[in-house]
Amino acid sequence: MNNLGVNALNRDKSGIGHNSVKMVTESVKTDNVDSNSIALAVTNLSKIYDSAAGRVVALDKVSFSVKKGEFVSIVGPSGSGKSTLLNMIGALDRPTSGRVYIDGIDIFSLRDSEIATMRNNHIGFIFQSFNLINRTSVLKNVKLPGTISGMSPSQASERAMKILEALGIADKATQKPVNLSGGQQQRVAIARSLVNNPTIVLADEPTGNLDTKTGEDVFDMLKTLSRKFKRTIIMVTHNPELAESTDRSILIRDGGIDKDVIN
Ligand SMILES: Nc1ncnc2c1ncn2[C@@H]1O[C@H](COP(=O)(O)OP(=O)(O)OP(=O)(O)O)[C@@H](O)[C@H]1O
Ligand SMILES: [Mg+2]
């Protein structure tokens, strides 16, 4: 990722929609933390699923904060609540109670339309199954969050191409994602997650569908994003070696934080 220039990653974030949530920042302070150095704060976050099968407390009053530039791994047994936590942080779903602050903004105090803008402009997502749109090109996949946030099509294309170049897959720009290898598809997903220069990149088992070597390559890419470009990254993984290579590991068990260790 040698030619991933700072310019490719540091777009001025004063795009459409940003100002509306910016106002909220002024009035909201997270508890006991210097909000300037904190990318994310979660306070007393709970999620209860009520279904015909019964009641599941997927998250039970979880609180923690993540500093800007920190690379955090979330580990824990299957069903312990890791994806639920990531989905709440990324505002893909609403918590039952508790708060999530991103860049000091209390995201669930916003209107739904503002939450959508917040999600698009401040949060990058990388999923185990890539979640790319297969009927359209790699380039269009990567530029989509940019055009949604108000970049012109040419601006979005230029930025998407720079990132694809930096991730070594610019030659695949006109291909459909389905024709790429798993590792290449995940690099496209990483590129897409970076287009809006997000505050936080959330990755739910990003190496889970990849063979060991390809998974390590994708992980190294995330690590470079963290070390060299100071991105804040939260990654769920079942791989203990990868978890130990991050700055900090949070162990989730039965919907709560069991351990929180600096690696
Ligand atoms: N939409 C839903 N409706 C009902 N229960 C749910 C829903 N989503 C998750 N759960 C339950 O919440 C608990 C936490 O699930 P979650 O997907 O967060 O686990 P996880 O730690 O990500 O597991 P895995 O490692 O298998 O991905 C589980 O008991 C799960 O069955
Ligand atoms: Mg999960």
In short:
This protein has 263 residues and is of the alpha/beta class.
What does this protein look like?
The chain is of the alpha/beta class and 263 residues long. The chain has a domain at 6-21 and 69-90 and 120-262: P-loop containing nucleotide triphosphate hydrolases (Rossmann fold), CATH 3.40.50. Helix content is 35%, strand content 26%. It is built from nine helices and ten strands. The strands form two sheets. Strands 6-7-8-3-9-10 form a six-stranded mixed beta sheet. A four-stranded antiparallel beta sheet has the order 2-1-4-5. Helix 7 (182-194) packs parallel to helix 8 (212-227). It is globular and about 45 Å long.
Helix content range: 25-40%
Number of DSSP strands? 10
- Mass-distribution shape: globular
What percent of residues are in strands? 25-35%
Question: Which cofactor or ligand species appear?
Answer: adenosine-5'-triphosphate, magnesium ion
Quick one: biggest sheet?
6 strands, mixed
Task: Break the fold down into its secondary structure elements and pairings.
Elements: H1 6-9, H2 18-27, E1 38-51, E2 54-67, E3 71-75, H3 82-89, E4 97-102, E5 105-106, H4 112-122, E6 123-127, H5 138-148, H6 153-166, H7 182-194, E7 200-204, H8 212-227, E8 232-236, H9 240-244, E9 248-253, E10 256-262
Parallel strand pairs: 3-8, 3-9, 6-7, 7-8
Antiparallel strand pairs: 1-2, 1-4, 4-5, 9-10
Helix pairs in contact: 5-6, 5-7, 7-8
The site of magnesium ion (MG) has 2 residues, from helix 3.
